[in-house]
Request: fold
Amino acid sequence: MQISRHINHTGRRKILHSEVEIELVEQNGKPPAFRAAFTLNREHLPDNADLFVEAYHSNTTQRFSFGTVAAPTAPTDTTLSEIDLSGPTLFRVKVVDNSESAGRLVASAERLAPKDDDSEEQRASLMIFKSISEMGNLTWRLSFDEVRKPVLCINNKIPEAKHQLLTNPVFQSLILPSAFREVLMYIHWDQGEEVVDGSWQEQWINFSNKIGSVERPSGNDPDILHSWIDDVVRAFSESHHFCDHLVKRMEESSHA
Amino acid sequence: MPEYARRLTEQGIEEFNNYLVAISEGQALELPQLLLTDERYSDVIEQDIEVDRIEFSTRHELGAYATKAIEGSETQALLGDQGFWSWLALYWFDQLCPADGKGVRKPSKPYNYILSRNYKHRPRHAIYMTWVLVSQYGDTSFFLLSKKPNERGELIEQLAARQYFIACEGIVKAASHLYYDPERKTFKRGSTSQKRKGNIRRFIAYLQQLDLTYDLGSLAGGTLLDLLPDEYAAFKEAAE
Reply:
């Protein structure tokens, strides 16, 4: 039996997601700001080490100094003014010790999602739903990250956008099958046949294998793959009765 | 004559992409200028950003021009605006992808002109990335942008592909110190040679190693240069 274990060569401590809580704060006529609350386990962390929070999306990054480990202090302005807000913003936290040599990284946390994005309900699902600003006239789109599960971004100009997606059969039937298809295409385009164990990509393939009539075919033949994706999306649509619910809602609307 | 910048619509982007595909197959088509002004293909943007068809001698000059044109605008709203950056690339396309005597152009991949939704490809955009570098680092970014607008060098290829590195001022300053030759007004000879010690690829590999134990965002350019091993001595000395 092979026993594998991770060796931490760097000595850097991993900050648990439970030690940091990030919350986005909407601001009228301005990009959102954020609040960060820390409940750091300070064992092995120098009290005077600097604390930084970095917001990021796509290739935009904005860095904020939050004082020290012993006394975290939020900067006066945490507006995400340098972040591309056309997709979900994530955060990383860094603890940096400058006492012996400049910039020594002693602890960090990556890919922290704001509180709303990380609810129990969202964690259990295969996809995160999020209403997003700066989408122009695009009604919805998917945002992908190598490590984090796909985010279905819906334009926040649409009244109660996220609620509509969760409850309205019209939105669900017209968006979700297409989004499902796009995710499967993306996985294949990005990773080919090999997906990483335990990754979101593997969860999607496992789920698809379970609901489809056949398991994901091997090889890269686009026709075979396309046909498998069609089959899975059809099965997904059947299981949720998308077309029936759409027709029923349309009939209800026409009688109202 | 100056014009107000606009934003390509979804249809405009599709048409621009079709054009790029067609000319990459060798077709000598006229530039679809109509997309820039026709309301079916482009929209006004909420801010007044005035641009002109200036001839730029380097990418840096283009970046400095774009920085000045965009200065004072609400830049945050433009960051992920695919239509805006793609419109600018089409506007200056003659310089980003000049035609030869027979009217034939040899474009790079579409994401060099149409801002990609894929974050891996986004740093390739000819205007967006140039603006990011110049607006953030000014003249320090010259070593990455010293070529003609239609040329993209190995230095930017390597450095900009690592999105976090390009956001760290210390890294950009250290790289400029190592690889910029003020006499030649471009990068130093050997910067991109894979046979040469301390070349840009080695520098990136070293940064990746350093990233495990250092917060690269905290390091000043000088501190980073002090941390570099001996193999960079020749590049460091040449700069001093």
The first strand of chain A starts at residue 13 and ends at 14. Chain A has a mean pLDDT of 86.
